Amino acid sequence: MDEFLQQMVTGLATGSVYGLLALAIVLIYRSTTVLNFAQGELAMLTTFIGWSIWEWGGHYWLMFPLVLLIAAGLGAFIERVIIRPVEGAPTLNIIIVTLGLFAIFNNVATWRWGGIPKGFPAPPEIQVTGVKFFGEGALDIGPTVVSYHDLTIIVFAVGIMAALYLFFQYTPVGLAMRATAQNPIASRLMGIRVGRMLTVGWSLSAAVGAVAGILIAHLILLQPPMMMGVLLYAFAAAVLGGLDSPVGAIVGGLIIGVSENLVGTYTPQEWLGPDMKLTVTLLIIVVVLLIRPTGIFGKRALRRV
Amino acid sequence: MLKLREVVAAYGPIIALHGVSLEVPEGSVVAVLGANGAGKSTALRAISGLLRPKSGSIEFEGQRIDRRSAEEIVSMGMSHIPEGRQLFSDMTVLENLRLGAYSRFTGLARSIGEFRRRGQDFEAALKQVFEYFPILAERRSQIAGTLSGGEQQMLAIARGLMGNPRLLLLDEPSMGLAPIVTREIFEIIHAINRTQGVTILLVEQNANLALEIAHYGYVLETGRIALADTSENLRKSEAVQRSYLGQ
Q1: Whole-angstrom distance between the N-terminal and C-terminal Cα of chain A?
Q2: pTM for this one?
Q3: What confidence tens digit (pLDDT) does each residue in B70-105 have?
Q4: Can you tell me the ipTM of this complex?
Q5: Residue burial A193-225, b: 16+ Cβ < 10 Å; e: rest
Q6: Which residues pair with B210 in a beta bridge?
Q7: d(Cα B49, Cα B142) in Å, to the nearest integer?
Q8: Would residue B122 count as lying in a domain?
Q9: Statement to judge: residues B10 and B58 lie in one domain
Q10: A residues 151..190 contacting B (CB < 8 A)
Q11: Does B83 fall in a domain?
Q12: Do A189 and B91 count as a contact with CB atoms less than 8 A apart?
């Protein structure tokens, strides 16, 4: 039982990272129907920038918001300069462009920072009235032990989800962004600058992806191919949750993280075992999509390609 | 209030308007009649900035608007209620109405006073819209896509009114509605013009109804103005009777 709980919590933590990257993918997809294959590499690149800031002596809590700002700027730049010109082009063209970005970000990271894995810091400990937040070590919660970093990841994912929910539901800009995603022409007739909303969407998405990168880098070491596996799981999470649903992205990520961990732990080596955990996870997704083709929370039917 | 001079508009190589000139005086209701594909909707799209005219000029309250974007034109005081309603169908009635008021409140409020005043303006606009369409007040939390056809058209008009326009462009408000619902909606459109003094440019296939509330009418035929006169004269005109009034 303790082992089971342990694996659950660890699964929730990695699942949160998948969910965050899936959220980044969904934020762009639902307003532009562009599947951004470069999402993971963009997150990796911004994490490297964070690493450099930290190396130069920047404090973690200075580096963190700074990276988010830089990521947001990069996201806006990419939308304006690279995506805008191919807007309205056939889907395949846009996919090729994002695959191109994937290669570019990967090359830039290798060229600038090299291929040797680097340790990335965890958020430093903060004491608030004797209660410890973040930092190293583990928290003993009765039947099981949870590492502080796993907790940090889960709290960040939940916090970002809540913040985005409030933003989309209760602010005029959030409302306008949802309107743009649903009906761009009607949005223009309301006076909404649709192009600007798309730019904001890419900024938000890049920032959310950067959080995923920063949080996972501490667990798996920072290196250029770091996000490739994560991206695969994130796409799976986004499809599972429904490509137009931000809540679905996080839930999909959590389901995949947990099931991946449980399959890896509880199926015998000779039968499935850790080597087959990716296969089993993807099998679960196929079954869910057979029953609900729009994903768990999705509304719009996915286009058959 | 609105003046079109020799407006030519096209979708790619296909010319839809071949030099259309028309005028909408302040406070009036002007109807644009014509068969399917005559260019009625295209004219509205050109006016509201969704489609940039190839040549000719469009003036709104003395200012050239034919090179301005749709987003700019809304905030100048013109609402376009498009064909097929184009609601935000996954959102609630209230969210649709909020979006209708979007153009009035762009940018951050610069003071608490302004923030409060915006809230009051919004509530006042909402109250007025609910007076025209009490059913929308009842359905304010309902998802727009689940409303009946008539209610959706009411919401589309209400959303347009939330922007506090001086000119309303209405495209086929009777489309797909039962005659009794259409009549109700036309009565409300008439009331909006009379009590609030909103100028209305109405595109409609149902010429009978349109000429009942309009002061002036234009007949479009394959992208050209074929006839222009007061509603009274148009109703009497033999050509209009034959082609559009079904008599």
Answers
A1: 44
A2: 0.87
A3: 999 999 999 999 999 999 999 999 999 999 999 887
A4: 0.92
A5: bbbbbbbbbbbbbbbbbbbbbbbbbbbeebbbe
A6: none
A7: 31
A8: yes
A9: yes
A10: 172, 175-176, 178-179, 182-183, 185-190
A11: no
A12: no
